[in-house]
Amino acid sequence: MRIRPALAAPAAAALALLLAGTGMSAAVAAPAALATCQQGSVEVTAARGATAHVVRISVTNGSGRACVVDRIPTVTFGDLDGAAQPVPPSESAPYRLAAGGSAYAAVRTLDPAAEESRTVSSLTVAADPSHYGEEFTAASLGSPRGIRVWEPVTTLWQPTRAKADAALAAATR
């Protein structure tokens, strides 16, 4: 859930009223915000990780300028409700992708302590919640019988694959 934009306008209005009452200027220089990456300008990939229940994902900005995606990748599983939860637990925030730059995350689809699971034929990865995402079949991820899912988690976007793997390992000990 994003609440920052909802709070920005009332906060700016309150500041303007406060400054108007004191006779001070309300002009404040704000840094230019980067635009959200367009779905057509990013490439999302997914591949089997080091173990059967880990998927490595990446996003690459194919545009000629920097843009942002959400720092939490959106990963959904077949026809199941919900998405992989971020580890560590985090709020939505922008993650900057340089022109031509990439980011990486690791997804654990199945809690090793799980006594039950569901099996799906695909997963979908979106670099930002405003994107539809890319669907990857279980077979393309090295799981021809399906992807087993129970309490899935995802890391935040990281600058390298190694950092994504380390973040997942640290969060799921």
Strand-residue fraction? 25-35%
Major sheet characteristics: 5 strands, mixed
Task: Tell me, rounded to a whole number, the average pLDDT.
Answer: 86
Order of helices and strands: HEEEEEEEEEEEEH
Number of helices: 2
Q: What does the model show?
A:
The protein has two domains: about 1-30, no CATH class; about 40-170. Helix content is about 15%, strand content about 30%. The protein has two helices and twelve strands, in the order αββββββββββββα. It has helices spanning about 5-20, 160-170; strands at about 40-50, 55-60, 65-70, 75, 85, 95, 100-110, 120, 120-125, 135, 145-150, 155. The longest helix is centred in the N-terminal third of the chain and has 19 residues, at about 5-20. The two termini are about 25 Å apart. The relative contact order is 0.20.
